[in-house]
Amino acid sequence: MKVIRSISELRNEIKGRQQEDLVGFVPTMGYLHAGHASLLQKARVECAIVVLSIFVNPMQFGPNEDFDKYPRDEERDLMLAKDAGVDIVFLPQVEEMYPHPSKTQVIVSDITTKLCGASRPVHFAGVTTVVSKLFHIIQPDKAYFGLKDAQQVAVITQMVEDLNMPVEIVPCPILREEDGLAMSSRNVYLSAEQRKEALVLSRTLFEAEQWITTDTPVLTADIRERIISRISASPLAEIDYVEILGYPTLQSIERLDIQNEEPIIIALAVKFGATRLIDNIIISIKRK
Ligand code: AMP
Which of 85, 214, 248, 249 is most buried (CB neighbours < 10 A)? Predict the structure, then answer.
């Protein structure tokens, strides 16, 4: 496994590959866990060369967000990467990615204003800009993204389609802890009590899936209210949003009995203390 910190070295390394070798790319912010490893393993199966990037991208954090205290552990990350069979780890410093103030941004409109985009206004412009840069540097054939960040998958897929980027976006399922909590680098911020209370998120999403598939409620507002009341029952939970939308269009849906071919997403963001957790479930509604 090669650890590369400079863009030019990475370009040279990738240029030297056999033309027919597929390059699979997994962009991350590090502090890796089994969720990241599942993306790397999928890339390993499908591609001859697996590139992992670890870069905490300042551009996607708002001024009062957790950029400075985002967890970092390079040594541990490199061990996990090696175990997952990664060929190249790209670990640039901020100065390597942004040597001077950038005047160019890649912005996807509309779908970036909903869900996390509503409470994190600069977030997606930072994500699409850095992912575009990484795609240009690495020129992967396939790039792997987790549905833990389902809106991000929708936004990146839209960007790739709109800008004809020659890369296939591969969405990967959410990995959860045994008790249901979606794996996240930010889970380390949680106190033991918050960690326990945070289980309300996955539990409520799975319950909602049950209501929808067995009780067949029709109005999404009713389902949303039920979810909000379940989560609000936890004294430590402070809801940012609970939304039920079409996926991946993120269009509003009022009723579930419309002739809608599109699956729905129930997406939520909830704070426990200073830690904001997101989770979601995507459900195909097949009405008779
Ligand atoms: P991050 O380091 O949080 O930016 O995540 C890097 C990639 O790993 C993103 O595509 C995430 O969606 C994905 N990821 C993070 N957590 C999980 C998880 N629990 N299951 C699956 N993918 C995940």
Answer: 248
